[in-house]
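=== RUN LOG ===
request id: a7f3
mode: sequence -> structure
chains: 1
length: 335
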Amino acid sequence: MTYHGHITTALAVATFALMLVAGLPVHAHQAHSPKQAGKSPVKVFILAGQSNMQGQAVADLDGKDYNEGRGTLVSFLRDPAAAARFRHLRDASGQWTLRQDVWVRYKLEDGRVKAGPLGLGFTAYDGRHHFGPELQFGHRMGDLLPNQVLLIKTAWGGKSLYADFRPPSSGGTVGPYYRKMIEEVREALANLKTDFPSYDGRGYELAGFVWYHGWNDGCDPQHAVPEYEQNLVNLIRDIRKDLKAPRLPVVIGELTGAWVNAEGQWAAVRTAQRNAALRPEVGKRVLFVETHDFVRKPEDSPCPTHGHHEFANAETYLLVGDALGEGMKRLLRTR
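=== RESULT ===
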């Protein structure tokens, strides 16, 4: 289903001025292209989850706080095979690329909005030294589609599906971050011209939803884990209902983590994620994507003690984003 939003330049300028007067955060990230690079309608993908979706991969930091740069993006791309496979991440001068036909919007909890062409820095950290699954996922979608692509990130650290993202159909108190996710998607779609001045005003289409999550629920094996499968089914159905996109393709990214062969609650969360994708209630346009093989050794990573963040390993996050993109590509071909 295509939704049309038309925001005039005058309104965008007025909104910007009001934000300055009121002291509100103003959008800040990389430079925008003067003209929309991709075709309309804009294809919109929602990337949701917790800190892993926020983005923990380290691009170029080193020193003792980052294990002397082991496992960063800079380190990973020193390998000729990796550099060839991911050559799109750097331009001819060796600088990190900005992809104009793929936009990203990420609103931080403090209200700041990062909006601009696909590149590094769309995370909860300041600067452009980190990234998440959106980087390679965005390149995959940009390569696949002739349309302008927009990635809306709605991810916050330490949030459970059991409580924080709890969908309305699960009963009890609706999770505040479920509500926040829906509100921010609507806000992003209503403010396309403000966030992306080159938007041509010719409409957009909700094209897909990606869920990459699981840590917090795994920490509550007594309550959250037994409900995870049903809560995830409810989340998918409720999002489609609330965003008026009944056939919205959904990719479920496996809980990655450092517990590849772990049993107990971590295996149970993974099984629940896999099972949710197979439930008849969600239909055929839902796909579970395995990611556990992408974990790298802690000693070869920037943050060896952060197993819950995949040790901040850049290769891991690139491969996760690539797998999520491949999964979405398959779904977009499903009728």
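=== NOTES ===
The chain has a mean pLDDT of 91.
The domain at 2-332 is CATH 3.40.50.1110 (Rossmann fold).
=== END ===
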